[in-house]
Amino acid sequence: MNTPIQNPFIIFETHLKNIHKLLSGNEVSQDNLSVIQNTFWELLKSYQALKNETARIEKSKKEMETLVKIGKTINSILDMDRLLNLIMDMVIKVVGAERGFLMLKDKETGELLVKVARNMEEELKDKTLFTISSGITSRVAREGKAILSTDAQTDERFYAQASVMDHNLRSLMCVPLKIKEEVIGIIYADNRMVSGVFTEESIELLTTFANQAAISIENARLYENVVNETKIRMNLQRYLSPNIVNDIITKRENIVLGGERVECSILFADICGFTSISAKFPPERIVQTLNEYFSAMAKIIFGNQGTLDKFIGDCVMAVFGAPIFTPYSARNAVKTGLEMLRKLEELQKKWESEGNPSFSVRIGVNTGEVIAGNIGSPNRMDYTVVGDNVNLASRIESYARPMTVLVSESTYVKIKDMVVAKKMKPTLVKGKSWPITTYEITGIQAPEEKGKNKRRFVRKNVSIFATFKITGNSKTNQCIIQNISAGGLLISSRMGVPVGKKILLDFILQDNNIFGGIEGKVVQSSPLKDKQSSYCKMGIEFTSLDNTHIEKISHFTVNQTQSQETYVNL
Predict the structure, then answer these.
(1) Neighbours of 438 (CB within 10 A)
(2) Distance between CA atoms of 461 and 484, rounded to whole angstroms?
């Protein structure tokens, strides 16, 4: 029979009672009385300490159980809005805060944006009432370290923070949301009136919670990206080559909805005498032949970085240089035309041997400014190009001889050093009041590769959160460093700074080298806009780096595993 395990607290209390009896009995000598009394009080203190420690362990156990439940809950949610709201509710509940907010970092600008808040709605509506200094949130985001204050009014770190002092903030915590040492945002919680609400245990609990929350946020973000990428890829693959689709997805290139003016090359390839051919064969064989022809032509267009605009009956329309700019778009268009003719010659032999219909094509190419974009109705939109230069390309194709490529003078000017061509007699085409000059292309050769100029400093592409101040202005601005060399860096920020202005930068490299108050001059500033954000990219030239700083940056750019084999002039 097993003996039941006795509670250590009961044993401890039994000993205390025995000592008490000894103290109250007559047999206790005066000499031992002081010893027994001291022992009694030591036991009493030990008992109290043991009781406190047990209570702490029990509390930690409950907190861990709570965190496990929270982790299971938030990790199962992939809808970003729902997830962020749940995280904020749990923060208020778990740490017992009066109010708080969660900010995520804009990957383009580095700016911390409030995504969800509790008990701060009025302040968020009116930015002038927003009481939390950007100095606190920027510092946590930059350094990746939590901040705790049990009484902000007497905390030396916040004497310069007007928002803390003026609005009587007492207890506050701010912790980073981190993924593999990269800060993706922050969680802030405070109490405006009572000091001592938060403890070291509170900040540890919130930090642990933030680590779980960051993983959930990243999972939701990745899920959103996958869903969006799938939708974009399925739409783009209808008319773009796989390589261009990958560029759009990986480089986050923008395809402007509605239309923009661009210069590109337009190719039309039309079957000669298709009506008479289709009258001689059954429709099924005509369709089979057309499908084989169109499939082969689309492959050639995609192989030359072209966009398959549409099939117009028996005509193929392709665009080169839109929606993504590519060098040598005119050459790519003409090269496509010549390859289409060579492939068609192969198909003609095959079709004739099979007794299927065979045909020839005419190809025309024009280069110029068009309106490119998603055009159509709300229910059906397709990417295409429109304008006079599109019409001219179609007119030129109609004047081409069978199995030839005819190009406009604007196209020829761009490729004259790359092709073998024959100048044709000026032709008056429909829609033009004067004759146009065209060229029949008989061959093409690749341009010689130009030597690449190596520059002074190795550049590394990065994504590092940083802050900066414009010289003479105390306001702290947020940004993302996109690449860096020992001569300068490229940043993106919502705060645009004119060329020639000097700024002071604070940042920490991924090898943990800290750079504070680094002076730089803006040498390039270009505003970029899209529907979701408005920001600037700025080239910064360092003006105050000492040899130690130069060595640290040079070591970082050259010796990091993923350093880039490119150079910059800065």
Answers:
(1) 26
(2) 7
Nearest residue to 216 (alpha-carbon basis) of 309, 23, 106, 86: 86
Residue 144 lies in a domain: yes
Overall domain count for the chain: 4
Same-domain pairing of 557 and 513: yes
The number of beta carbons lying within 10 Å of the beta carbon of residue 511 is 10
Please state, in angstroms and rounded to a whole number, the distance separating the CA atoms of residues 523 and 457: 16
- Tell me which of 413, 444, 475 is where a domain ends: 444
Q: Is 65 left (phi over 0), alpha (psi -120 to 50) or beta?
A: alpha
CATH of residue 373's domain is 3.30.70.1230
Dihedral-angle region of residue 76 (phi above 0 means left; psi in -120 to 50 means alpha; beta otherwise): alpha
**DSSP class of 355:** T
Q: In the numeric block, which tokens belong to residue 275? A: 């009506």
Identify any residues that bridge with 262 across adjacent strands, giving them in sequence order.
370
User: Which CATH number is 498's domain given?
Assistant: 2.40.10.220
- Look at residue 279 and tell me if it is in a domain: yes
Residue type, 164: V
Query: Cβ(202)–Cβ(177) under 8 Å?
Result: no
- Residue 130 CB coordination number (10 Å): 18
The residues pairing with 315 across neighbouring beta strands, listed in sequence order, are 270, 312
Asked whether residue 489 falls in the same domain as residue 436, the answer is: no
Residues in CB range of 291: below 8 A, 6 or more apart: none
Give the pLDDT confidence score for residue 242 in this predicted structure.
64
Domain end position, chosen among 444, 465, 480: 444
For residues 184 and 182, give the distance between their C-alpha atoms in angstroms, rounded to a whole number. Answer: 6
The answer to the question of residue 282 being in a domain is: yes
pTM: 0.48
What pLDDT score was predicted for residue 372?
82
Burial of 560 per CB tally in 10 Å (0-12, 13-18, 19+): middle
Token pair 């196209």: residue: 411
Peptide bond into 378 cis (omega under 30): no
d(CA 369, CA 167): 58
For residues 321 and 411, the answer to whether their CB atoms sit within 8 Å is: no
Residue 189 lies in a domain: yes
User: Does one domain contain both 56 and 103?
Assistant: no
- Rounded CA-CA distance 42/441 in Å is 103
Q: 56, 67, 117: which is closest to 92 by C-alpha?
A: 117
Q: Determine the Cα–Cα distance for residues 17 and 44; give it in Å rounded to an integer.
A: 11
Instruction: Please tell me the distance from the alpha carbon of residue 390 to that of residue 399, in angstroms, as a whole number.
Output: 15
Q: How do strand 502-508 and strand 514-529 relate by DSSP bridges?
A: antiparallel
Q: Which residues of the chain are modeled with pLDDT < 50?
A: 1, 5-6, 129, 162, 165, 256, 448-455, 529-533, 561-570
Q: Is 298 helix (H, G, I), strand (E, B) or coil?
A: helix
The answer to whether 222 touches 81, Cβ cutoff 8 Å, is no
Same domain, 194 and 324: no
Give the structural domain span for 505. 457-568
**Up-side HSE of residue 531: CA atoms within 13 Å toward CB?**
5
**Res 129: pLDDT:** 46
The secondary structure of residue 511, as a DSSP letter, is T
Residue among 241, 151, 147 nearest 192 (CA): 151
CA–CA gap between residue 199 and residue 149 (Å, rounded) = 8
